[in-house]
């Protein structure tokens, strides 16, 4: 946003900040345009993240939408694609529509910012719950790979995030198979495909019983499907965009929480 916003005139930038309720005496100051913009956006971001301030979060979205609707020359308009990709990493789709109205630099735009998630529950809460549970179980390798996946995801290094996420899922599967089934760890790499077969009963029917292998038709197909999906477009450069990476993050985070809940510490078959 700063790359685009700093090219605005000071008056136009102030109007956009005011429209999004981001303008204040504290952030206005007497600095140059870039510093004023940076102060306003950083202040709102800190409130949104650290204080979980819904108004600050919405203000940032409102400013982004208003910025996209500005009458830009072509060079700045090209930067909107980069902004859209950043928004996808945060769970939003930017819908940028060209209108019939014209400005100084071409057709005017109308923008919407739509969330990917149906609910407003933050993904970060689920991430934190998973990190806590992995730590509590002593699954340090899975935890380390998961936290690295989160780091790379936030840095928009999506292929690397996918690869680390897949490894975290595999480490968890192997750990659960060791702790809750007759699976014997042979100390070799890439054993997830074998270990996962111990966590569910192929062709199994009936209801799942906590701590026991899942029937194929009550959870088994789910974890096998997630395993298969996690090996598509994984760590290969250029094969994953922000939206796909976020979907993978949600899917595998949910699957890992599901497995940890079904195979709790101290349940039947557990060695802990």
Describe this structure in words.
59% of the residues lie in helices and 10% in strands. The protein has helices spanning 2-5, 10-19, 25-28, 33-50, 54-68, 74-89, 123-137, 140-154, 158-180, 192-195, 216-230, 242-262; strands at residues 92-103, 106-115, 200-201, 214-215. The model has no long low-confidence stretch (mean pLDDT 83).
Please outline the helices and strands:
Blueprint: H1 2-5, H2 10-19, H3 25-28, H4 33-50, H5 54-68, H6 74-89, E1 92-103, E2 106-115, H7 123-137, H8 140-154, H9 158-180, H10 192-195, E3 200-201, E4 214-215, H11 216-230, H12 242-262
Parallel strand pairs: 3-4
Antiparallel strand pairs: 1-2
Helix pairs in contact: 4-5, 6-12, 7-8, 7-12, 8-9, 9-12, 11-12
Annotation keywords:
272 residues; mainly alpha; two-stranded antiparallel sheet; two-stranded parallel ribbon; 12 helices; elongated
Number of E-state strands: 4
Strand numbers in spatial order across the main sheet: 1-2
What amount of the residues lies in strands? Answer: 5-15%
Low-confidence stretches: none
Q: What does the overall shape look like?
A: elongated
- H/E series, N to C? HHHHHHEEHHHHEEHH
Q: Calculate the terminal CA-CA distance, rounded to whole Å.
A: 50 Å
Class from secondary-structure proportions: mainly alpha
